[in-house]
């Protein structure tokens, strides 16, 4: 079976882990963590980057930083991963779901303003497939209404909006290094702090609510409990692994883009025949080839398509179950307006295998995809 994801190793991960081990430095915020922070800050232009255990953890930190109180509202798409909502629900906040755009599957920025109430505190744009949301419009709405913008850039490392790296545009940005993402450490993530007003408190929340980071920099002579917080920093072993990946980020992105572009060219013809719709990347967005997906005509065709590929030894997957339709989403969330695109597109989307090394299987995958897509059209 050709898997839909296969984690890529650069070859230096174990060597760096061995170095961390030899240095006797295993807890967080050691030399490798600092290298990762410096890389992220240089790469994204963020004021401060902080490694976390996951993007979920970075979103939870953002929810604490935004000072969300029970009943506060956070506007986000329903078409996203559960963590986008969970992080805020943990603070007692209410996710308010608005529809997505039909082209990029990102939050429809023209629907945000009407969803704002006096309880609204934040907007969480999710950059689906590493393709940017309309950040100029979103930032303008947020400034006019005094809202915090937290980018869920879990899929967005090495992508940009009008030349600005994803995660570096909102007040805060959250990245993921989960093994299904482009740059990985098994589990892993980072919080990007762009609004300098959040920087000091972000360090404190990440270190169990203490000023331990300032103590280690010699800025205070003892450290103590000064705020709420948790343990959000990963071990040096994780950072060592991650740094090896960061060093190869350009190569990884280039190779993924080559695979993505080749799928895209191959499927132009079946799109012209009306059998599928290919991903849309607006001209002002540069993307990282996080995923290649196709939109089939309907739910039933998608089921047959996935089954046909499976018979050919190819794994393809779908996601997401819109959060407003999930049991927890129905209990804790609220929907604003119609979610027509969300429900329609989530029934029709399928993701194809995209990983470094899949190229040798690509001709076979392309052939099977074209056959399965045209089969659906015939039936
Ligand atoms: C992967 C993902 C997350 C969660 O990332 P973790 O690092 O696994 O916590 C959150 N949001 C989106 C959009 C994702 O794709």
TrEMBL record:
Keywords: Aminotransferase, Pyridoxal phosphate, Transferase. InterPro entries: DegT/StrS_aminotransferase, PyrdxlP-dep_Trfase, PyrdxlP-dep_Trfase_major, WecE-like. GO terms for molecular function: dTDP-4-amino-4,6-dideoxygalactose transaminase activity; pyridoxal phosphate binding; UDP-4-amino-4-deoxy-L-arabinose aminotransferase. It holds the Pfam family DegT_DnrJ_EryC1. It is an enzyme of class 2 (transferase). The active site is at 181 (proton acceptor). The keyword Cell division does not apply. The keyword Transferase applies. Belongs to the DegT/DnrJ/EryC1 family. This is UDP-4-amino-4-deoxy-L-arabinose--oxoglutarate aminotransferase. It comes from Accumulibacter regalis.
């Amino acid at each position: 079976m050709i898997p839909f994801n296969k984690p890529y190793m650069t070859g230096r991960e174990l060597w760096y882990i061995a170095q961390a081990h030899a240095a006797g430095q295993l807890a967080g915020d050691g030399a490798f963590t600092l290298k990762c922070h410096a890389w992220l800050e240089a790469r994204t232009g963020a004021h401060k980057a902080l490694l976390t255990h996951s993007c979920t953890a970075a979103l939870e930190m953002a929810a604490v930083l935004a000072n969300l109180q029970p009943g506060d509202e956070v506007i986000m798409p329903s078409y996203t991963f559960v963590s986008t909502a969970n992080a805020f629900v943990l603070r007692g906040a209410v996710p308010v779901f608005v529809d997505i755009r039909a082209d990029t599957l990102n939050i429809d920025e023209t629907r945000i303003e009407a969803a704002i109430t006096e309880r609204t505190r934040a907007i969480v744009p999710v950059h689906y497939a590493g393709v940017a949301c309309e950040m100029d419009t979103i930032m303008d709405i947020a400034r006019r209404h005094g809202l915090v913008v937290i980018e869920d850039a879990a899929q967005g490392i090495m992508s940009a909006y009008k030349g600005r790296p994803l995660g570096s545009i909102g007040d805060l940005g959250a990245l993921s290094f989960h093994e299904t993402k482009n740059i990985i450490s098994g589990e892993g993530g980072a919080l990007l702090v762009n609004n300098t007003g959040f920087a000091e408190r972000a360090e404190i929340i990440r270190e169990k609510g203490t000023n331990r980071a300032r103590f280690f920099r010699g800025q205070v002579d003892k450290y103590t409990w000064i705020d709420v917080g948790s343990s959000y920093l990963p071990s040096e072993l994780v950072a060592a692994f991650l740094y090896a990946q960061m060093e190869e980020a350009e190569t990884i992105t280039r190779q993924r883009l080559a695979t993505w572009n080749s799928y895209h060219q191959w499927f132009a013809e079946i799109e012209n025949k009306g059998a599928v719709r290919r991903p849309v990347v607006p001209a002002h967005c540069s993307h990282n080839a996080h995923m290649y997906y196709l939109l089939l005509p309907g739910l039933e065709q998608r089921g047959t398509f996935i089954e046909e590929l499976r018979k050919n030894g190819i794994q393809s997957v779908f996601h997401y179950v819109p959060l407003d339709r999930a049991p927890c989403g129905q209990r804790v969330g609220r929907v604003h307006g119609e979610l027509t695109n969300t429900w329609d597109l989530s029934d029709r989307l399928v993701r194809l295998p995209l990983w470094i090394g899949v190229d040798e299987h690509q001709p076979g995958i392309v052939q099977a995809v074209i056959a399965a897509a045209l089969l659906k059209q015939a039936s």
